[in-house]
UniProtKB/TrEMBL annotation:
Species whose genome carries this gene: Actinoallomurus acaciae
Pfam families: ABC_tran
Record keywords: ATP-binding, Nucleotide-binding, Transport
Domain of life the protein comes from: Bacteria
Name this protein carries in UniProt: ABC transporter ATP-binding protein
Domain ABC transporter: 10-247
MF annotations from Gene Ontology: ATP binding
SMART domains: AAA
């Protein structure tokens, strides 16, 4: 699919993240190293509280690791000040959340172009129109988010994340609030963005079927990588998750440490 020696678009080197202090400290990431080549679709799975969201937030520069290095598109995030990090995030990273996070008082088209405008860049109406068409939203451009279904709102959030052609698109449980059909449409779109535009996607999910849309799955347990599975199928992923869940002490299964 891509040359094996291609330099990674996202790399983590021995990343740790400790939330809180003293007795309340939680080691959410415990020495995570990984390298993802450009143009791949990677799913991240693991029990609740295993550190998946923390991983995504540190990789996307939304949160700072306690130690270690994160390199996105050739930039070591720890070497950037807040202004430079914000700029890199706007220009080279997209983020899709479970809860869509659209601005309710803006139209679909305005929501999609908002990050570019924050970055002081103009968006071409033709590019926005083509993107909305691709995501099945051509006739929704002037609607307000509240007039759309959950699946349509998530597709708007994906359009917003993709408009700047980010080096990496991060998605934290993007189908978590959707029914089966809407989830399938969102997953098809993400996979299509990878196949047709060479987009790199990293997606956290709890759903083995969602994970099966990815090129590979990284399993996470207790803040560490616990293996990976290329060309995943839902049944193998589900079996692996069941083993991981049974290996987690009950006190940790709900994220309590
Ligand atoms: N801001 C925070 N302050 C303190 N502890 C936190 C914070 N964020 C996360 N944690 C803790 O860090 C650990 C990892 O949390 P994280 O949200 O990354 O897990 P997750 O794998 O995404 O879980 P879920 O599947 O439930 O979303 C958990 O024990 C959690 O309670
Ligand atoms: Mg999470």
């Amino acid at each position: 699919m891509y040359p094996p020696n291609a330099s990674p678009v996202l790399a983590l080197y021995d990343v740790t993240k400790v939330h809180g202090h003293g007795d309340a400290a939680v080691r959410a990431l415990d020495g995570v190293s990984l390298a993802l080549p450009a143009g791949g679709f990677t799913a991240v799975m693991g029990p609740s509280g295993s550190g998946k969201s923390t991983l995504l937030h540190c990789a996307a520069g939304l949160d700072r690791p306690t130690s270690g290095s994160v390199v996105v598109d050739g930039h070591a995030l720890e070497s950037l000040d807040e202004t430079a990090l914000t700029r890199l995030r706007r220009e080279r990273m997209g983020f899709v959340f479970q809860s869509f996070n659209l601005v309710p008082t803006l139209t679909v088209a305005q929501n999609v172009t908002l990050p570019l405008e924050f970055a002081g860049r103009r968006s071409s109406p033709a590019v926005v129109r083509t993107l909305l068409e691709r995501l099945g939203l051509a006739n929704r451009a002037d609607r307000m988010p509240a007039e759309l279904s959950g699946g349509q709102q998530q597709r708007v959030a994906i359009a917003r994340a993709m408009l700047a052609r980010p080096a990496v698109l991060f998605a934290d449980e993007p189908t978590g609030a959707l029914d089966t059909q809407a989830a399938r449409e969102v997953l098809d779109l993400l996979r299509e963005a990878v196949r047709e535009s060479g987009q790199t996607v990293v997606m956290v999910t709890h759903d083995p079927v969602a994970a099966s849309y990815a090129d590979s799955v990284i399993f996470f347990a207790d803040g560490r990588i616990d293996g990976s599975l290329p060309r995943p199928d839902a049944a193998t992923v589900a079996a692996r998750m069941a083993r991981l869940a049974s290996a987690v002490p009950a006190a940790q299964a709900g994220g309590v440490r």
